[in-house]
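queue> holo job accepted (iron/sulfur cluster)
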Amino acid sequence: MKIFVCVKQIPDPNTVESKLDPATKRLVRTGVSLVLDPGDETTIAAAIKLRDSLGNSELTAISMGPASAQEALRRALAMGVDRAILISDPALAGSDVLGTARTLAAALKRENPDLIFCSTESTDGYTGMVPGAIAEFLGLPQLTFAREINVEGTKAVIKRVTQTGYEVVESPLPAVVTIASGSFEAIYPTMKGIMSARKKPFSQLSLSDLGLDPSQVGEAGAREQILSIGKAEARAAGQIIKDEGNAAEIIADFLQRHQLL
Amino acid sequence: MAPPAISPTGGWIGTTIFVVIFLAALTVFGLRVGQLVTLLAKARREDRTDHLEERIGDFLLVVLGQSGVLRDPIPGLAHFFTFWGFIIIQFGLLNLILGAFNGSLPLIGHDHTFAALLDLFVLFVLVSLIVFAVRRGIVRPRQLSSRLHGPWDGFIILGLIFLVLLTLALVETFGFAASHGEEWSLLGSWFGPSFYGLGTATNVALYRVSWWAHILTVLSFLVYLPGSKHLHLMATPFNVFFRNYGPRGALPLLENLEEREDYGVSKAEQFTWKQLLDGYACTECGRCNTVCPATNTGKPLLPKEIILGVKESLLDRRHEIVGEPNLFQKLPLADVRSNGHEEIQPLVGGVISKEALWACTTCGACMEICPVSIEHVPKIVDMRRSLVMEESDFPPEVTSLFNNIERNGNPWEISNDRRAEWAAGLGVPLMAENPDAEVLYWVGCMGSFDQRNRKVATALVKILKAAGVNFAILGPEESCTGDPARRIGNEYLWQMMAQQNIEVLNSYGFNTAQTETATAQNGHDHNGQTSRARTIITACPHCFNTIKNEYPQLGGHYEVIHHSVFIDRLIREGRLQLPAGFDHRKLTYHDPCYVGRYNGVYDEPRRVLTVINSNGVTEMRRNRNRSFCCGGGGGRAWMEERIGKRVNQTRVNEALETEAEVLAAACPFCIMMFEDGVKGVEAEERLQVEDIAEIVARALEEAATPSTARAGQ
Ligand SMILES: Cc1cc2nc3c(=O)[nH]c(=O)nc-3n(C[C@H](O)[C@H](O)[C@H](O)COP(=O)(O)OP(=O)(O)OC[C@H]3O[C@@H](n4cnc5c(N)ncnc54)[C@H](O)[C@@H]3O)c2cc1C
Ligand code: SF4
Ligand code: SF4
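queue> job finished
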C-alpha cells in the first residue's frame, strides 16, 4: 500500500511566543525556532504503526513550506518514514487553506495514494480545514478523529473519538484519515533512523512540477482575507461563590443560564 | 631434590597412572580456561595498559595485600588467610607431586619451618572455612545468594576446600606415622604417633591412599573451578591489574557515531574484553547490593545481578560467539557450562530487565565498594545506550527531556534566551561583556531556571562579589552540558551538546590545551596578555563532572572547580572573611555522588561548614565515600519513581536520625530531591535543606550587619 502523511513545520509551540506581523497580519515564521508540528509527530507514529502492521507498504511524508521545512521532513524520515516530498515555491507564499490544500492534493494525486494521514488540526494555525479540503480536491472519503486505524481488505476501519467513547466507521480505500490528538505516542528517532534519514529518497517539487498556475495558489489565489487582527480579550476574573447555604442553587442557575444544564 | 621417605605412588606403574590422570585433568582445565579466554578475545578491544607503574603497585596491594576485601573486616580476614593459605598449600602440593617422581622442592621440600608454616595456614584456612560456612549457612546475608550458579556452588566450593585440607592432614599424619617422624610436619607430629600401632605397612598404604585422595580432590577442584564462582581466583588478579585508571567520572566515549553499526550493547559480546572479565572476576560477595540505593529501596536492580547477568548471557551465547561447530561443543568436558539447549534469553529485557537498567542512579556506590574493581555503571549505561539509540525504548517522560535539551538547550520547554533572567538586577556581567573575566561561573540549567536553585545561584553571586572575584556568566550562550542525556544513554545528544559548549568555551579561551599551545608559540593569548589558567566554577556536580572529566574526550580541556572547593580556597586565601562559628544550628552534610565518590572531594565542603558552624558537621550513618545517593543522578531526576520506597525520603530519614536541623548539600539535584523528600516525610518543621553557598552567603550578611541592628529585628 502507498500511505502518505501530511506534515507541517511550525514555530516551536513550547518556546516561541506567537507574534503577528502587523503589516501582513500573519504569524511571524522567520527568525524563530521551527519544529515538526508535535501533533504531526503523533500522526506519523500512527502511520508507521499501520505501515508496519500491513507489511509491504511504503510511507511517504509530504509537506508544503519554505526550504527550511526540509528539517521537519528529515525528522519524519528519522522517525521511520520511508520517503519525503517537499513542495516549495516562492509563488506559494501567502497560501490560505484553499491554496495549501490545492497544492497538497495536486502532489498527492500524482502518487495514487491508498491512504492519506493528516492530523485533526495543526498546532499553529489550527483551522482543521486542510484535510477536508484535500479530500474534496481528490474526491475521496474522509474519516475523522481516528484514535485507531486498521485496513481490512479494501476498507479503512477506524475508531472515531466521540464525546462519550468511540464509534467504528469505515470507508473504501483510498481515503483521507485524520488522527485525533493524543491517541498515539510520538517516536523518538533511533540512531539508525537518524543516520538512514540522510540516505532516504527526498524529492522537492515546484509549482510547475504540479502543473499548477501561480494564480491558483499563494497570495494571488487566496480566497481568505485577514481583515483585522486584535488582542484576545483578557479573560474576566472568575466568580467565586461562598457557600452560605445556597451555593448549589447559584451554581445550578449559572449553568442553566449558559445552557449547560 | 632429596627423595621423600616413602614413595607416594609405590613405583613407576603408580606414577604413570598419576601422570595420565594429572595430564588429563590439566588438559580439561586448560580447555575450559581456553574457552573463557577465547570469549574475551572475541569481544571488543580496549586499551588498559596506561599507568603501568601504578598498576603494578596497586596489584601488589590489592591482590597480595588483599586490601580490597579487608575493608569488610571479618570475612575480609578470613579471606586473607584463605588466599595466602591457598598459595602456600600450592607449594605443599608441588612438593607432594614431586614425591611421585622421587623428588621434592629444593630448599623448602624438607624444611621444618616451611612444613610448620604450611600447617599453620592449614589451620587458619580451616578456621576461615568455619567462618564462611557459618555466614553462608546460618547468617545467610541476602547478598550472597546467587542466581547464576545456584545455591550449591558456594557449598561445593567450601566442601572441596575442606576436603583438600582434610586429605592433606591425612597425608601428613600417615606420612609421619609411616616414616616414624622422618617425614616431619606439624600436624603429622600431633596425630601421626597415635597410628604407630597400625604397623608400618598399613601406615604406608594409608599414606598412599591419602596422597591419591588429596591429589584427586585438588584435580577435581581444578576442573570444577572455571565453571564456578571461584573462577574469580584466577580472574581477579587480572581484573585488578587492568582496572580503570582514567577519571572515574568519565563514561567511555562512543566513537564514530556517524559510521557505527551498533550504538551500545544488546549482546554480551559487544562489551569490551575488560567489561566481560569483570564477570569472571566477580566473587559474588554481594557487597554492591548492600550499598545500592535502588536495591535498598526495593527496585528490581541488584548490581551484582547486572555483572552476573552479563556473564550468564556471555556463557549462554558461548557457542555462537566462538562460532559453531567448535571444539568445546564437541567435547562436553571442555565446556564451562553443561546447559545450552534451552532457549537463550536476550541480554537486555531478558537476563537483565529493562526496569533494572532504568533504576540505576549511577551513584557509583557499587563500584566504590567492590573489592575487585568491577565497573558496573559503564555496563548499565552501555545497555541503556542500546535501548535509547537502537530501540527508542525508554520511560516515556524522557522523550520531552531529550527534545527539550536538543531544541532549547535546557531540560524544559523554556527558550534558552531566558537563561540569564535569574541574574537580572544582580549586576552579573555576561562573558560577552566581560571577556577577560578570570572566572567563568557555569550556572547550569538548574541554577538558571529552577526556582529553588536560582536562590543558590544568587547566593553564589553574593560570595563571588564579596571576595572580589572577576567573574562572568555565559547566559544564553550556555547550554545543557548533556550530562543527563549521556547517563540515560543518549550519547548522540551528549556529544551534540558537548561540542556546542566546547566551541563556546574555546571561543573565550578557556581551553587549557589551546592556551598552552598558544603560550608555547608566542607566550601571549589573543588579547596580547600573558596566558594564565582561567577557571570555570559551577555549583552543579553533574556539569562539573562532565566538563572536567568527559569534555576532554572531545578535545575540551578545562580547569573546572566545584563551588565548594572554590569557596574553601577563597576562605583559605583570606579573600572571604566569615564570622567563625556564627551558625549554631546542628548540621549534617550530604556528599553528592559526583563531587564525592566520582571526584574525591570530601574535605573542602566540610572545612567550609566547620568554619561557619559552631557545632561542626554531624555525620550521617553513611557518609563520605559511602554516602547514599539522593536518587536524582543518572537521569533519574527526570523519571518517575514508580517502584518501591523513595530514595530521597530514605536519605532524608537518615539525616533526621542525626537530629540535625540543616541538611547541607552541594548539588542542585540533591537539593531538589531533598526538598521533595522532606515534604514527603513531613519534616518541613524539623529539617532545612540548604546549599553550602546559601549557608556561606548568610554568614557574609551576618558579618556585614552589625549585631546591634540585628538585635532590633
Ligand atoms: C491569507 C493567508 C495567507 C497565509 N500565508 C501563509 C504563508 O505565507 N505561509 C504559511 O506557512 N502559512 C500561511 N497562512 C496560513 C495557512 O493558511 C495555514 O497554515 C494552512 O492553510 C494550514 O492551515 P492550518 O494550519 O489551520 O492547518 P490545519 O487544517 O489545522 O491542519 C491539519 C493538518 O493538515 C495538514 N497540513 C496543514 N498544512 C499543511 C502543509 N502546509 N503541508 C502539509 N500538510 C499540511 C497537516 O497534517 C495538519 O496537521 C496564510 C493564511 C491566510 C489566510
Ligand atoms: S560486583 Fe564486586 S561487590 Fe558486587 S558481588 Fe561482584 S565482587 Fe562483590
Ligand atoms: S551506580 Fe548506584 S544505583 Fe547504580 S547499580 Fe551501582 S549502587 Fe546501584
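queue> The mean pLDDT of chain A is 93.
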